[in-house]
Every structure is written in structure tokens, then in C-alpha cells.
Specification:
Radius of gyration: 22 Å
Distance between the termini: 6 Å
Largest sheet: 7 strands, antiparallel
Oligomer: single chain
Number of strands: 24
Strand content: 15-25%
Helix content: 25-40%
Strand order of the largest sheet: 10-3-2-14-13-1-24
Structural class: alpha+beta
Length: 509
Amino acid sequence: MKGAIAAGHKLTADTAAEVLKSGGNAFDAAVASFFTMCMCEPVLASLGGGGFLLARDNHGQSRIFDFFTHTPRRKSAPKDIDFYPVTVDFGSAQQEFHIGLGASATPGAVSGMFSVSEELGSMSMRELIQPAVALARDGVVVNEFQAYLLRLVSPIYMTESVLPLFSGGADGQRLAATGDTIKNLELAQIMDVLSVEGIDLFYRGEIARDIQRLCEGRGHLGYEDLTSYRTIVRHPLRQEYRDRVMFTNPPPSAGGVLIAFGLDLLQHFELSAYRPGGYDHVKLLAEILRKTSAARAKHFIDGPHAGLLAPELVAAYRQQVCGVTAAFRGTTHISIVDGDNNIAALTVSNGEGCGELIPGTGIVMNNMLGEEDLIPDGFHRWKENERMSSMMAPSILLGRDGSISALGSGGSNRIRSAILQVVSNLVDFGLSAEAAINNPRIHIESDVLNMESGLLEESYGALAGEFPQHRFFAEANMFFGGVHAATIDTTGRFHATGDPRRSGVGILV
């Protein structure tokens, strides 16, 4: 067996599969799949964004590559930048995002891919980028989920700059719909040159100068922001949960710490006594998620830190749980385990995009400085020249029985609740990866309890009474994240499960 792959799009997974078949390892496959994501999942992934890759090699060494966006070195006055709100209609709710070049932070995705390839890869970047180049030239047929995403972000992608790239129909005045083919010839050319010239093209050469000129008088980014950008390699956060060990994203990102905190609270309860989806089980999860949010608000004043996991602090919040009666975000993920037990969990994001392209490149810039949950002190009050925090939490779960799971999710603030519930389903109830992912989820934010259909019938009425602010989803919904998992079970068999909430696919090679 060459490996297992779980991703948000079949073409993304297919690219990774071809790399494994060609003799590449999990890290080669992850790098190649990222560039493919930029074509087949264009709302979610871009060379103008950033992310994280959690790697564990077959020698047992784990590390996380942080190539998330970085705040500019100099801040322009709000009156001097292009920064404005747009409203995105999710049907059941509306959400305001801020876009424009004043919302763009320094992109790290290109740096991250070259760093991973140089340190852990076995194939050339020329080989890894070519599948994406071919797709960009030949075109990608838009599937139903990607068409849905384009409709959601239409206020951002209908701009004069971006629409020509994602238009459909004879007159080119609407966004591409299901069945339309989109091409990106400029991106194909840029990726082809990038595969030959290397990282300097983006951070010191022509593209860096293009970003500088684009942002003059409209944004914060300058040439020095690009030349000074570096991928940071960190030790992952390690958290024991019952008979498993989880590795996840450490500070300055918030997601991993909050998942670890929730699991630390949860593991002091004997969940085998609960009925999955029953009132007692769901109420416990809701309270743990609520306490996790409270701990974040109280203890992350100066940013995320591992001090949240101090035993005495966890114990204090656990007592609060015991005393109780028994934002869409443009993010995507791929999980890969190969036949040599190399593990890659890659999560990337472009926010929603800022509504502007880097001229001549086909690359949509990010809007991370316009993301309310990434700028806790308020817009325009971010600190200069620092790595931004994120809820993204690519994770690896290792069992003492030899089982391996690589997993991660998109979904902004729902990432932490989605991963926590999937991990609990795997460990506490012994579910298969498919069942653990497909089981209904909840999420609580600002005391609003969100519930998917599929919980035990008794749960809805009782929980609605205890949570006056609640929302019911009649079917599985992308609001609750998209956990894609590649696993090896105790017998050595490979499994790959994509989350249907986000059109996920799983491939065995």
C-alpha cells in the first residue's frame, strides 16, 4: 500500500495519489496537492494566503511548518488604505467581512511549500508543481461545492479585478456555476516559472515588486515585508488523551491549545457511560465548548499561550463543568499517510480573498487583516511585524496500539469543536474514522448552541430549553467544519475519509 489521502476535492487527492505512485513521500504529495488546491479549490487556497503543515517522519520526529500570514512591518493610516466591508449571505445568517488591499497581510504559502520540500521532500519542485500547471492551462470543471462557495463570496469575487478569472456564461458577467470550466493561464505561467526560478521569484523578484506597486497608496505591504518573510519550524503541541497522544498546532496559533484544553476537560469524564448524541453527552460537550470559549476570552489577552493547559487552571474549569447538570472561513485541509509511515496534515487558508489580484499572476491576495476573529483588538489595531494567530489545527493522533490518524479541518472557529468531537468519537466510542466524521456535531459560540440533525430526538427539546439562543440545522452543514482524516488502524490497514460537509474525498493508493 502506497498510502491514504483525504482531501476536500477529488483533483487535490488525485494529485497526491499520483505523487505517491511515482515514488514520492507524504510530504511531496502534500506540497503538490497545495498547488492543485489553488486551481480546484480557489476560494479556499491561494499562493496569496498561508497555513500550516504538521509533519511526522518515519523516524518519529514531529514538527510543524508555520507559513501563516505575517502582519506588515509598517502600518498606514486607515484613511489612506483600501479597506471596506462586504456582507456575505449564508441563508440562515449573514456575516460581514472586510476586504480591499488594506486587509492583506504578508502571504506565506509559497515559502512554506518550498521549506517543506527542501527539508522533507524527495522530488523536485518542478515535478511537484507541474500537475497544477496542467490544470491551470487546461481548466477545471467547477463542482457543486465550489460553485456554492463562489456564490457565497460573490460580493468579493464579483470585483472588476477578480471576476474575469472566475466568470461563467457567454458574457462573462456572472461567476462560474456547476459544470462551467475555469482556466487560469497567468497562474499556470507563474507556477511554471516558480518551479524553475524558485522562491526568490515570489519574495525578492518580480512578484514581490508587483505586490509592492499594487499596495502603494492602497495597502500596508511593502517590498521589505516580502524579503523578510520566513517559514518558522516549531515543535508541535503534545497532548495526551486517554490512551492516545495528539500532536497539534502550538502558539502563537490558538486552535491547537483550545482543542487540547477541551480534551483535557473531557478526559476526566467517563464517556462510555453516555449514549452518543444523547442529552447528557451533548450537554457535556456544549459545556466544555462554552468553558473553552470563556478560557480563551479570559486568558488569551496577550495572545494564545500554552499556560492555558496548566493543571490547576484546567482543574478550575473542570469544576465548573462538573457543577452543571449532567464564522465561515475560507479554509481547506488534506491528510496523507504513506506506506513508510510518514504523516502530513496540511491546512491552508486565503481568508475570503481581498477582492484583488496580483497583476499578471492570477493570484488572489488574502484578507487576513480584515478577519475579525484574527484581529481581537479591533481592525487597524494589530501589532506590526508579527506572525498572525489562527484557529487552524492540523493534527496527528497516535495510539499506543499502533494506530495513526492524520486529521484537520476548515471552518474558522468551528475547527476546534469539529476536531475535538471527531477525536472523542474515535477514542471514547471506538468509532471508525468514517463514523466519527459523519456523526452529527454541535458548536457553541457566544452562548448560541448550533446543532446538526442526527442527535437523539430527546436531545433537541431539552437542549433548546437550556440554551434559549439555539439554531438547528436540518442536515449536515459546512458550518460545522470539514474534517478530512487519513488513518492506519491496529491491523495496519489504511483508511481515507473525507468529510461530506465540505465535499471531501478519500483515496487509497
